Structure of Mitochondrial carrier protein:
Amino acid sequence: MASEDVVGKSRGDTAVTTIVNLAEEAKLAREGVKAPGHQILTICKSLVAGGVAGGVSRTAVAPLERLKILLQVQNPHSIKYNGTVQGLKYIWRTEGLRGLFKGNGTNCARIVPNSAVKFFSYEQAAKGILWAYRQQTGEEDAQLTPLLRLGAGACAGIIAMSATYPMDMVRGRITVQTDKSPYQYRGMFHALGTVYREEGFRALYRGWLPSVIGVVPYVGLNFAVYESLKDWLLQTNPFGLANDNELHVVTRLGCGAVAGTIGQTVAYPLDVIRRRMQMVGWNHADSIITGKGKEALQYNGMIDAFRKTVRHEGAGALYKGLVPNSVKVVPSIAIAFVTYEVVKDVLGVEMRISD
């Protein structure tokens, strides 16, 4: 009988504890404070949304992404890829369908965490900057200006890029190699191990500086232009594009396209230099980099890479691959932004980029 009383008391205590916990969470919700478990779940959902957005957008434009890199690093003395259409046809003819998507698995392995961190970092940076801005101005209803959004986007880009840069470095090499290359990276982890073993740890971050400098205008402008353009359309509602304070998916795609075009045009030369610096030290580089009978140029740093590229190939070389990149980046950025917002709606995440 005593044991039954103990069991009954234990069950009663458990029930009371559960009720108290639920009441406490309800109180926190009424006061606008989220329980720790809810906050963690929200963060995880936001990271998932960013990862899905990155994977979907990059896979959709994978052939153009590979062609862009091939154009960026090919030697002018041995031109195999001459333009977007010819380049895609050449890859299809020589390597087949798999050739068009070579390196995409490694790219997705990089871009999924990169995109997840980037979107989440932007939201957190934007909130922190907005809080500081409101404290400074004393205006509780103040909103982020385009310049502040640029700063938040730049912070997000630097954090995400730095966190996943070694994967981007080996992805470039895997993308460049062909079936006829004298040496083959078997995958991302094999490439990471090989580069570390043969060239040292620093090689995994070769080209990091131009990447950091380039990511500020690129990612910063992407977020700043996208959010500012959305706000302007919601406020002015030209041609009735806004419905119930919401923009149609097609309109948001258009905002993303404009943002992507502006960002990539400004930062593109730094992307070319980054790719070329990533190839330095690769002893088994394929002939598309070295050219037949030619030796690949060696760069002693970002400035040296700029100088040698312009001296040997002209200023136009800084925009090699711009056409396929433009064709790629517009739908890629647009798809990423819209996919991110759609997935967050599906998962029921309260956080918004514009908050």
